[in-house]
Design a protein that fits this description.
By secondary structure, the protein is α/β, with parallel strands linked by helices. The chain is 33% helix and 20% strand. It has helices spanning 7-13, 41-56, 72-77, 104-113; strands spanning 2-4, 31-36, 62-67, 85-89, 96-99. Strands 1-3-2-4-5 form a five-stranded mixed β-sheet. The longest helix is centred in the middle third of the chain and has 16 residues, at 41-56. The radius of gyration is 13 Å and the shape is globular. It starts with a strand and ends in a 6-residue tail after the last helix. 29% of the residues are buried.
Length: 119
């Protein structure tokens, strides 16, 4: 299931950037965060892909969405300038960003290569 994040839930579930300078992931499973806006055509195209990935990898991966219009501060904290943007966060190590409406195969490859998650 895809969960929506606000700044407050982001600070507790993902990373408290107000408290820490160095990256410290708060989650127990790798995660994928979709930065989107309701008016964005490419965001709408990729939404079914994200929802299917969330269902397919439910026990191995957390999937979140951040509405860049509602969460301006959170979006700017990650330098989001174009949408959709995707943040791949492994349990250990640094997160990686990908931009654009990616095809499912690219997501599956990134989940394996970046997050170490396979179906």
């Amino acid at each position: 299931m895809v969960q929506h994040l606000t700044k407050e839930t982001f600070l507790t579930k993902i990373f408290n950037y107000e408290k820490y300078k160095e990256w410290k992931y708060e989650g127990s499973k790798p995660c994928l965060i979709d930065f989107y806006a309701d008016w964005c055509g490419p965001c709408k195209l990729v939404t079914p892909v994200i929802e299917k990935l969330a269902a397919d990898y439910e026990d191995k991966l957390d999937v979140f969405k951040v509405d860049t219009e509602a969460e301006v501060e959170l979006s700017s904290a990650f330098g989001i300038r174009s949408i959709p943007s995707f943040l791949f966060i492994p349990v250990q190590g640094e997160p990686r960003m990908a931009l654009g409406a990616l095809p499912r195969e690219t997501f599956v490859k990134a989940l394996k290569d970046v997050l170490g998650v396979e179906k």
